């Protein structure tokens, strides 16, 4: 049975995502995102589940950096979870002076804390569940956690359904070493990371290759290439699957323009949204045009 490492400890949002992405599989918590990815690279796990993007706080930097560096890992599936929090406290009816959680979680409840726990100091923990562990140990007064955390860390509940932005969501990836791609579904996402050259227009050229082929971006993030001040990697997600002619054509063009391109996966979108295809950008347009060139080369038409 495949073994799945996930960003833990038990009771994180990531564990919930892993249970949905790999039902019935053996799940092992890792303390950090990089430890979850390392477990796959070392062969201790077959796949890892990690958060990648939140609708309020944006990209999860540790995941982007972890996928761009070291041996390649490829996303084969994604999950989208609604994010609202439960606030657990050390002691019922006691004053709350410190509130711990993952920085992404704290950013999503900033206003709630200002209104409900004025003056409380926020403290970054490695994950929402790690914050609950720290509260159990008596290190902090409260933890902002996933709703499932209370099942693992039976602390008094101060509030449930906490979220500054009601429709907040986090997207999670299941990543594994390169292998056969998941089959295209018609509602897929492809991800790459490219270290564009440091010259005028280099990023615009990459994006134009996608725009020319009518490919809609779903995310664009920049992360610094460490040790090279001012140099960035660009994480580009777009609609479509690598096996589609229009996407394969675009990814080949990106590779031609920038040999520092890494493929990060093509997999079904969790929201099932299919792309709107621009005029002349359908796969049949690409294959039809290539067939015509082939016929011209054979001297059969002009
Ligand atoms: O700490 C957790 O529970 C996580 O799974 C991490 C994480 C994140 O990285 O964004 C996941 C979802 C929430 O947005 C808050 C924290």
Short description:
Residues 3-177 form the Prephenate dehydratase domain. By secondary structure, the protein is α/β, with parallel strands linked by helices.
Please write out the topology.
Layout: E1 3-7, H1 13-21, E2 26-30, H2 33-41, E3 47-54, E4 58-59, H3 61-68, E5 74-82, E6 85-89, E7 98-101, H4 103-108, H5 110-116, E8 121-124, H6 128-136, E9 142-145, H7 149-152, E10 157-162, E11 169-176, E12 188-194, H8 202-212, E13 217-224, E14 232-239, H9 245-257, E15 261-268, H10 283-297
Parallel strand pairs: 1-2, 1-3, 7-8, 7-9
Antiparallel strand pairs: 3-4, 3-11, 5-11, 6-9, 6-10, 12-14, 12-15, 13-14
Helix pairs in contact: 8-9
The structure holds prephenic acid.
Prephenic acid is lined by residues 7, 12-14, 51, 54, 60, 83, 102, 104-105, 127-129, 146, 170.
InterPro entries: ACT-like_dom_sf (IPR045865), ACT_dom (IPR002912), Chor_mutase/pphenate_deHydtase (IPR008242), Preph_deHydtase (IPR001086), Preph_deHydtase_CS (IPR018528)
Catalytic activity: prephenate + H(+) = 3-phenylpyruvate + CO2 + H2O
GO cellular component, one term: cytoplasm
Describe the model.
Strands 1, 2, 3, 4, 5 and 11 form a six-stranded mixed sheet that branches. The protein contains ten helices and 15 strands. The chain is elongated and about 85 Å long. Helix 1 links the parallel strand 1 and strand 2 (26-30). Helices cover 30% and strands 30% of the residues. It folds into three domains: 1-82 and 169-179, D-Maltodextrin-Binding Protein, domain 2 (3-Layer(aba) Sandwich), CATH 3.40.190; 85-162, Periplasmic binding protein-like II (D-Maltodextrin-Binding Protein, domain 2), CATH 3.40.190; 180-302, Alpha-Beta Plaits (2-Layer Sandwich). The N and C termini lie far apart (56 Å). It has helices spanning 13-21, 33-41, 61-68, 103-108, 110-116, 128-136, 149-152, 202-212, 245-257, 283-297; strands at 3-7, 26-30, 47-54, 58-59, 74-82, 85-89, 98-101, 121-124, 142-145, 157-162, 169-176, 188-194, 217-224, 232-239, 261-268. With 302 residues, it is an alpha/beta fold. Prephenic acid is lined by residues 7, 12-14, 51, 54, 60, 83, 102, 104-105, 127-129, 146, 170. Prephenic acid binds at residues 7, 12-14, 51, 54, 60, 83, 102, 104-105, 127-129, 146, 170.
């Amino acid at each position: 049975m495949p073994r799945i490492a996930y960003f833990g400890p038990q009771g994180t949002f990531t564990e919930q995502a892993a249970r949905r992405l790999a039902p019935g599989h053996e799940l092992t918590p890792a303390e950090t995102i990089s430890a979850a990815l390392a477990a796959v690279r070392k062969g201790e796990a077959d796949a890892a589940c990690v958060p990648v993007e939140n609708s309020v706080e944006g990209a999860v930097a540790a995941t982007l950096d972890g996928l761009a560096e070291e041996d390649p890992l490829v996303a084969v599936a994604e999950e989208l979870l609604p994010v609202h929090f439960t606030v657990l406290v050390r002691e019922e009816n006691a004053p709350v002076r410190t509130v711990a959680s993952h920085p992404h979680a704290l950013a999503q409840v900033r206003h709630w804390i200002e209104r409900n726990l004025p003056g409380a100091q926020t403290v970054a923990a490695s994950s929402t569940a790690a914050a609950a562990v720290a509260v159990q140990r008596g290190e902090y007064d409260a933890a902002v956690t996933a709703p499932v955390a209370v099942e693992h860390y039976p602390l008094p509940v101060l509030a449930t359904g906490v979220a500054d932005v009601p429709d907040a969501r986090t997207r999670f990836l299941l990543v594994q070493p390169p292998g056969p791609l998941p089959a295209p579904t018609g509602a897929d996402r492809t991800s790459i990371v490219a270290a564009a050259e440091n010259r005028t227009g280099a990023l615009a050229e990459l994006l134009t290759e996608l725009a020319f082929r009518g490919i809609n971006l779903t995310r664009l993030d920049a992360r610094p290439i460490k040790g090279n001040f001012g140099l960035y990697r660009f994480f580009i997600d777009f609609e479509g699957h690598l096996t589609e002619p229009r996407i394969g054509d675009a990814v080949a063009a990106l590779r031609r323009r920038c040999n520092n391109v890494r493929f990060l996966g093509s997999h079904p979108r969790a929201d099932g949204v299919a792309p709107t295809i621009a005029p002349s950008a359908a796969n049949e347009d690409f294959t039809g045009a290539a067939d015509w060139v082939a016929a011209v080369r054979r001297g059969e038409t002009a």
